[in-house]
Each structure stands twice: as C-alpha cells, then as structure tokens.
From TrEMBL:
This is Pentatricopeptide repeat-containing protein. Gene3D superfamilies: Tetratricopeptide repeat domain. PPR repeats lie at residues 69-103, 264-294. One of its GO terms (molecular function) is RNA binding. PANTHER family: PENTATRICOPEPTIDE REPEAT-CONTAINING PROTEIN. Transmembrane segments: none annotated.
Length: 447
C-alpha cells in the first residue's frame, strides 16, 4: 500500500502554532521535505520548541539553520528570555549584531525584558539608548521601559516615561504595578485618582492597600470593582481577601470568599492565611478540610496551615499536617515549613522535639537555612535554653553572617542569657555592618 504524502507546508506550520508539543514529530517531517533550508519554517519550529519548554532543542535548531534572518534571531532571543536565560539572550543579541542584522523593535523589547528580569540597569539603559537611536518610541516600547526601570527600582526614570502617556491602559498598569512593588504607595493612590481603572489596576491598588493596611481606601476600591462589574474576577477577589485579612477584617474576607464563583488554590490559601494571621486556627483547619475536597493544596497552603496551628497552639494538628504534605501530596517541606514547625514547638515549650528536628536538618546541610536557625534560636530564648542557644547562634553566623537582623537577634539572646560581654561585642559588629552598603550587581552584559 503506497505511503500517504506528507501534509503541505502551510498545514504543518499551522499545526506547529496550535500544537507546539508536536514539535519533534513535525521536525522529522520538515527534515524529510528539506523545508528547513528556508528560515520561515525553521523559525516557526524554533518558536514551537520554545513554547513546548525545550529551549535546548530550539538553540540546536538555530545553530543548524543554513540561512538566518532578523526574525530567526528575534525568535532565539525571545526563547532565551521566555526560559529565564538573560545571559544567553544577551549573547544572542551580540551575535545578531555581529551577523550584520540591526535590532528591530521586537528585538529591543525582548532585551528590555531580559534586563528587567535580571535587574540589570546599565545594560537596560544601553538598550533604551538604542530605542531612541532607532526612533522606536511607541507605547509598547515605553511599557517595556517602564517595566525595566520599575524592576530596577528606578521609579523616577519610569515616571518620566509614563507622565506623558497616562491614557494608555497597559502603560498605566505597568507603572501602577511598579509603584506597588517598590513601595511607592502614595504615588499609586494618587495615580488611581486620575485614570479610569481596569481590573489589573484595581488589583494593584488592593495590593497597595494590603501592604499599608489601608482599609478605607480598600473599601473604595472594592466599591469601584462592584460598580465596574469586576467582583466576579478570581484574581481581583483573591486580592480583596488578602486586603481584608491584612486589615484585620477576616469576616469581610470570608464573605468575599464565600461569594466567589471560581476559586483556585490561591483563593483557599489566602483565606486560610487570613485566619492564621489573626489566631483563628480552628477556622483555618476547618477550611483546609473543605479545600481538600475541592482542590489540591500546595506548599503555600501548607505553610499557611502550619502557621495557623503555631499561632493557635495546635501542635498535634500541625505535626499531622507536616506529615500529610509529605505522604498524601508528595510535597517536600522547604526550610520555611520546618522553620514554622520549629517555631510552633518552641512556642508550645516542646524544646526537645524542636532540637531533635533541628539537629536532623543540620546533619543534612542542604536543609539548614537562616530561617531555621532563627526559629530555633527564638525557641531557645523563649524556653531559656542557654546551652543550645549558644550553639545555634554559632550556626546562624555560619549560615547567614551578613544579615544584620540576625546579629540583633543573637545580641538579644546573649543579653537575655546575661552574657553581657558577648552581647556588647555583637552590638559593635552590628554598628560596623550597618555602615556598609551593598553594591548592586548585574548578570547581563551587553558587550
């Protein structure tokens, strides 16, 4: 029986676009038909590999391409950025220039994303200069630039770009989100007064209200969301739950939660965390049991549950949940989970069990972190265990020696243990370290 002819090239390219997971099979077909000698199908295959999560295959394909154009170079750079490889993106950017191709607007936008991801301000300014030289000055480019400067903490630079384009929703969202991330909450609130907010802007505003515990403004944002018909949006409702919980209004947070149409794992975790923050351990555990029937909890959920148990003194329940996450859900507890459990044991006066767990984690050095040491030291302080506390203080200095807050905790421990000379020496070290400023670094070199 004769073999069926391969589908036409146009059909293969459409299939690549809609089903990137089929890239390997289509690659073989394209090879047999010699279609990869042209940059158009080769670039389409490269992009499909990137979407399928196979950046290595995409890079190998690019290296094998007999003919490359600017679109192919852009696809390679975009692939590296998509998979959090800013250094490889910068290398491809330099290779594109060496091959004689001028960067297009798409090239520069992608490189701005790479610089923003790495918080690489100097290379980012170089790309900004290239956008000016090439007269790429549209709103899309300005949005990428605002994102770059906000990611690098350069709020004033972002503001100078934003101030003349406040009418664009995408640019407003980027600026507002950057203000919240950089703690410029007043600027965020003032900006919201002069624009017609959308669901993203309102979500950012709620994040600012959560960070500042600004219930009055949060209520206004909630009213605006209701008037605009955004109250059924899952992401916005999650932000409302977080805002009300952090403002101490767990009942209001629960009302929002109960009225939600589509809850995801973050919705449940946020509500459990809200109960945890205010010592409602039983409510948190009841909600967790309901959650298990609806969606599978994740590591963040279990951290909220452990915290709730710790703040409410529910040690047996906390121990059971730590076991549950490992056995039923195959989630490996991270340092933050162990730190939370050690803190729980310390609060309950079960210092021996806390110490046994701490020692087992220390035996496996990969599990020991500054947070675990801090939790164990706090347990020693609350249980007046000077001998173990001295050992933990030494371990903490080994694990995280540059953290000034840890030095303050160690000094307080020595003072509580009446070890005045050691406490005074710690204070002197703190004063010296407090005068030093960490220098910024960049992991992207534009060459």
């Amino acid at each position: 029986m004769p073999r069926a002819p391969p589908p036409p090239l146009s059909a293969l390219l459409r299939r690549l676009s809609s089903h990137p997971s089929h890239s390997s099979a289509i690659h073989a077909t394209l090879l047999k038909s010699s279609s990869l000698s042209s940059p158009i199908p080769a670039t389409a295959l490269l992009t499909a590999y990137a979407k399928a999560g196979l950046p290595g295959a995409a890079s190998r394909l690019f290296d094998e391409m007999p003919a490359r154009d600017a679109v192919a170079w852009n696809a390679l750079i975009a692939c590296q950025v998509r998979h959090s490889r800013p250094a490889a993106a910068a290398e491809a950017f330099r290779g594109m220039a060496a091959a004689g191709f001028a960067p297009t607007a798409a090239t520069l936008c992608t490189m701005l994303k790479a610089c923003a991801y790495s918080r690489a301000i100097r290379p980012g300014r170089q790309v900004h200069a290239l956008t000016l030289l090439a007269c790429h000055d549209d709103v899309i480019m300005k949005t990428a630039l605002v994102d770059l400067y906000m990611s690098c903490g350069c709020v004033d630079d972002a503001n100078r770009l934003f101030i003349h384009h406040m009418e664009d929703a995408a640019l407003c969202n980027a600026f507002l989100s950057g203000c919240v991330e950089n703690g410029h909450f007043l600027e965020a609130f003032l900006m919201l007064g002069g624009i017609e907010p959308n669901r993203i802007a309102l979500t950012c505003a709620l994040s600012a209200c959560s960070a500042t515990a600004n219930l009055a403004y949060g209520l206004q944002v909630h009213c605006k969301a209701l008037r605009c018909g955004f109250d059924s949006e899952t992401i916005l409702c999650n932000a409302l739950i977080d805002m009300y919980a952090k403002c101490g209004r767990t009942v209001a947070a629960r009302v929002v939660f109960d009225r939600m149409i589509g809850r995801n794992v973050l919705s449940w975790s946020s509500m459990i965390d809200g109960y945890s923050r205010h010592g409602h351990g039983r409510e948190a555990l009841d909600l967790f049991e309901r959650m298990e029937k609806a969606v599978s909890p994740n590591a963040i959920t279990f951290l909220a549950v452990l915290s709730a148990c710790g703040h409410s003194g529910l040690v047996d329940q906390g121990r059971a949940k730590l076991h549950l996450m490992k056995t039923k859900y195959a989630i490996d507890p991270g340092p933050e989970h162990y730190a939370c459990f050690i803190d729980m044991l310390g609060r309950a006066g079960q210092i021996d069990e806390a110490w046994d767990l701490y020692c087992s984690l220390r035996a496996d050095r990969t599990e020991l972190s500054g947070a675990i040491c801090v939790a164990m030291l706090n347990a020693c302080i609350s249980n007046i265990d000077v001998v173990r506390g001295n050992k933990v203080a030494g371990h903490l200095l080994e694990v995280d020696p540059q953290n000034t807050r840890n030095l303050v905790l160690i000094s307080n421990f020595h003072a509580a243990a009446r070890q005045w000379s050691v406490s005074d020496e710690s204070r002197k070290v703190i004063m010296k370290k407090g005068l030093k400023k960490e220098a910024a670094s960049s992991h992207v070199s534009m060459g």
